[in-house]
Design a protein that fits this description.
Blueprint lengths: L1 H10 L1 E3 L1 H23 L2 H7 L20 H17 L3 H17 L7 H15 L18 E3 H21 L3 H5 L4 H6 L15 H23 L1 H21 L6 H9 L5 H14 L5 H4 L10 H20 L11 H4 L14 E11 L4 E4 L8 H7 L3 H17 L5 E11 L5 E2 L12 H8 L11
Antiparallel strand pairs: 1-2, 3-4, 3-5, 5-6
Helix pairs in contact: 2-4, 2-12, 2-13, 4-5, 5-6, 7-10, 7-15, 10-11, 11-12
């Protein structure tokens, strides 16, 4: 019964307009976001000014390449525009994925959930027929009106995963029973007009928004799937992300990504109107070249099967990856093992103070490191409370001093961290050497277990 069902599902065809509109808006959003990033001087600030960059495990080889880093951003920007207008679609989506992901991997300090989401969506577009119509510089035979239904449903499923895990992550005692860390953040917004010095200081507001955020994340994908509740759900999406942008402007383009992505839940007639509107606005394009005729898909069955298998494996991986923290002992919010790439959005408020002591055992000398000599203020702030940052920087310092001729070097760390408004606690055991210690041993033997229990699913 299962195989016939899957076979029948794979044969279902649906208008390609939702996928095309998603491609257009996604490409334009990335195009303008790169322009914004460039214009604010963040390329220099985040990638060129620092002398040291924190790396992701297995991607230590990815680093900024000096002034040529601008070329990566430029290539990413142009490829995003090409994706939007449908020019050389497969090549453009591949370049967009590679350049954007390279940018994301250059420095772990800049990690944000929506950067990760952009990379995932860009990867998916490589294997989805987003070039079905509304193209520039393409032959008519390469365009088609209908696409397999799974190509559109796969993006819906990824968005479902994002919302679902974001909602599940909020079912924890800090978020629901203490309204933390929202309480800390909202009470600091007293300068906002009308509400900041009054409403946002109310305890009931903190709990209302904490519970509301959890219920929103868990329910919104279901409400978007159901036709009767879709318009209401999309209005909620706009309101929720508009409030998020107002209250937390540093969240960047995440609200815009989620709003435009959720459009894909609407039926093809809605997207046909968007395409028709866009085509009327673009006077210098020949309308006939932008809107495809109703013809069948020209891709080979083998190609479609490969794409389907890749997307299935990809989505299965996305379903499994967020729960990998279950295999690590200790408090997730404290040691952060399995925290990234799992849609844990705005769950913790952490601050730390971390200093490093270099011991030259051979000459019996001790040096205290000035973090500012190696890190920018932003990097030091992120490093001060994240164990993997501390571990990586300690080993970098050890290697650096060893290369200067010091022998038998040890790196000791004095680190205190506060989590969600609690008092500071020592993160790493005092008077222990963490240089050249295996990462698993570092987490097991050197990080002090968190004394408070944060209950979660």
């Amino acid at each position: 019964m299962v195989l016939p069902f899957i076979k029948n599902y794979l044969e279902i065809r649906t208008p390609s307009s939702p996928l095309v509109v998603f491609r257009i808006f996604f490409g334009l959003l990335i195009f303008f976001s790169i322009i914004r990033f460039w214009s604010k001087g963040w390329i220099d600030f985040l990638y060129l000014e620092p002398t040291y960059h924190f790396s992701y495990q297995y991607f230590e080889w990815i680093k900024p390449i000096g002034f040529y880093t601008y070329l990566i951003f430029f290539t990413c920007m142009i490829s995003a525009l090409c994706v939007a207008i449908g020019y050389k679609y497969r090549i453009s989506t591949s370049i967009l994925f590679l350049t954007y992901t390279y940018i994301e991997l250059m420095d772990k300090t800049t990690y944000l959930n929506h950067y990760y989401l952009v990379s995932l969506l860009a990867f998916m577009l490589i294997f989805l027929p987003g070039d079905s119509k509304f193209l520039v510089g393409s032959h008519k035979k390469s365009r088609f009106e209908n696409v397999p239904k799974w190509t559109i449903d796969s993006i819906k499923l990824l968005l479902f995963i994002v919302y679902f895990y974001a909602g599940m992550a909020k079912i924890n005692s800090d978020w629901l029973l203490e309204a933390q860390p929202l309480k800390i953040w909202l009470m600091s917004k007293y300068e906002l007009p009308l509400f900041g010095d009054n409403l946002l200081q109310k305890n009931w507001v903190h709990y209302f928004m904490s519970w509301g955020g959890m219920l929103y994340d868990l329910s919104i994908p279901f409400l978007l799937i159901i036709r009767r509740t879709r318009i209401f759900a999309f209005i909620m999406v706009i309101i929720f992300h508009a409030m998020t942008k107002i209250l937390f402007p540093a969240i960047g383009m995440f609200p815009y990504i989620m709003v435009i992505s959720c459009l894909i839940f609407f039926d093809s007639k809605f997207h046909d109107k968007i395409i028709e509107f866009i085509s009327k606005c673009i006077k210098f394009f020949n309308k006939r070249s932008l809107i495809s005729r109703k013809v069948n898909i020209t891709n080979s069955g083998f190609s479609k099967k490969i794409s389907f298998n890749i997307i299935c494996i990809f989505l299965a991986f996305q379903l499994i990856l967020p729960i990998r923290y279950k295999f690590y002992p200790g408090e997730l919010f404290w040691n952060e093992r399995g925290y990234r790439f799992s849609w844990r959005v705005m769950l913790v408020e952490k601050k730390g103070y971390t200093t490093f002591k270099v011991i030259d055992k051979e000459n019996n000398k001790i040096f205290y490191v000035d973090n500012e000599a190696y890190l920018t203020e932003f990097q030091e702030k992120q490093m001060s409370f994240q164990p993997d940052f501390i571990y990586e920087f300690a080993n970098y310092l050890g290697d650096s001093y060893t290369s200067k001729g010091f022998r038998n070097v040890e790196i000791h760390v004095d680190s205190y961290v506060t989590l969600n408004g609690r008092r500071s606690e020592r993160l790493i055991k005092a008077d222990t050497n963490i240089y050249k210690v295996g990462k698993a041993i570092f987490y097991k033997n050197h990080i002090i277990p968190y004394k408070y229990e944060i209950k979660k699913i």
